[in-house]
Amino acid sequence: MKVRTAVFPVAGLGTRLLPATKAMPKEMITLIDRPLIQYAVQEVIDAGVERVVFISARSKRALEDHFDRTPELEYQLEESGKDEVLEDMRRLSFMCDITYVRQKEPLGLGHAVLCAKDVIGKEPFAVILPDDIIMSKKPVTQQLIENYNKTGRSVVSLMEVPAEDTSKYGIVELGEQADKGLFRLDGMVEKPKSNPPSNMAIIGRYILTPEIMESLEKTQAGSGGEIQLTDAILEVAKKDGVYGYLFEGQRFDCGNMYGLFEAVVHFALERDDMRDFAVEVLKNASSKY
Predict the structure, then answer these.
(1) Which segments of the chain have a pLDDT < 70?
(2) CATH at residue 107
């Protein structure tokens, strides 16, 4: 069955980026000239996804406004002859079909995904954490969909992390290798405090089969009273099998200032219209420090 829908859990408060996120959703923080959420939505559209579901909260109205039409702005751009910018604004409003679902309590990532149950139905779906911006030739969501099509099972994105950082991630135990970069998963632990099963971490891209919703409904709240998505995926892995894929691309954790700054530098250097300027700025800055 085709993966048509992507779920974006965007109800979080973004405390790692305070004070910038005090009055602005973290997903609306800009990476050069567009907000983080737009990069993530464009990724899934490029991967062939037709529908986006935002699991949102009352403080996230700016997300809805960003993907809505603004007739007064369009009129002003048209009157000013800024046709190229006008076309970009109209394209943004019609990128895809977007549905908004409220997560009324902050009960964890697993609970946020479960909020989309009625919208998802019995279809496989993607889950995208927009804090993770990934630069790649082929969209990571597309890479995962291709591997889902091979296996018919849930597929999560994997990245090797330093041993000292394993306590920050969901860490997997790799099983049999099924294809290049593709492994059946024998286990996984959410943020292990000691003895991690590997240094392979789950990153914010998932293709999940509808069985995950049944598993989430049975999953008990863990640390902090949150329902962990990793716990539910582990239960599905035991019963039906789940795969992990070492994606091709460079990931930036834009949920903190260091990752965001690193992303700005790399994305600027990748753009033809900014590369020379970025190189000059970096050269001048490095000579002063």
Answers:
(1) 223-224
(2) 3.90.550.10
